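Q: what sequence does this backbone want?
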C-alpha cells in the first residue's frame, strides 16, 4: 500500500554495514544496541534491503565469533568485564559459556574436579525439572 516508508537506523544503514564488514572486531556493537543482532533481524522484515541486512548480521557474527571464543579461552586471569564490555548480549552469552568451559577444563586437568559437565544438557534437565514442579 505504501503508506509508510521505514528507514533503518544508522546502526543498520548501508554505510555502517560497510564499515562493519571491513573489520567487525574493532566496532563496539553494544554502543549501537545491546541486542544488535536480534533487533537487526526483526528490523529486516520492514526494510527494503532486508536480505543484505540479514547477510551482514550473519557475516558479522561469524567473523566476531572466532575472536570471542579466543578471548574466552585465553582470559583466565583477566578482568572479564573489560573484555566483554563491547559485546552484545548474545556475544556475552557465547563468551561466558566458553570461559566457563575453559575454566572447568583447566580445573579438570589440575585434578580439582572429577568430571566435566555438559552445560547444555544440565541446563535442559534443570529446566525440565522446573517445569514439572
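A:
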Amino acid at each position: 500500500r505504501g503508506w509508510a516508508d521505514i528507514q533503518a537506523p544508522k546502526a543498520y544503514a548501508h554505510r555502517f554495514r560497510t564499515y562493519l564488514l571491513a573489520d567487525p572486531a574493532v566496532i563496539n556493537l553494544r554502543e549501537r544496541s545491546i541486542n544488535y543482532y536480534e533487533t537487526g533481524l526483526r528490523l529486516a522484515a520492514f526494510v527494503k534491503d532486508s536480505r543484505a541486512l540479514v547477510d551482514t548480521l550473519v557475516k558479522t557474527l561469524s567473523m566476531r565469533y572466532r575472536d570471542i571464543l579466543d578471548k574466552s579461552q585465553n582470559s583466565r586471569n583477566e578482568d572479564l568485564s573489560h573484555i566483554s564490555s563491547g559485546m552484545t548480549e548474545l556475544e556475552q552469552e557465547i563468551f561466558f559459556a566458553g570461559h566457563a568451559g575453559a575454566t572447568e577444563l583447566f580445573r579438570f586437568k589440575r585434578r580439582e574436579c572429577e568430571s566435566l559437565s555438559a552445560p547444555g544438557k544440565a541446563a535442559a534437565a534443570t529446566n525440565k525439572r522446573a517445569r514439572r514442579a
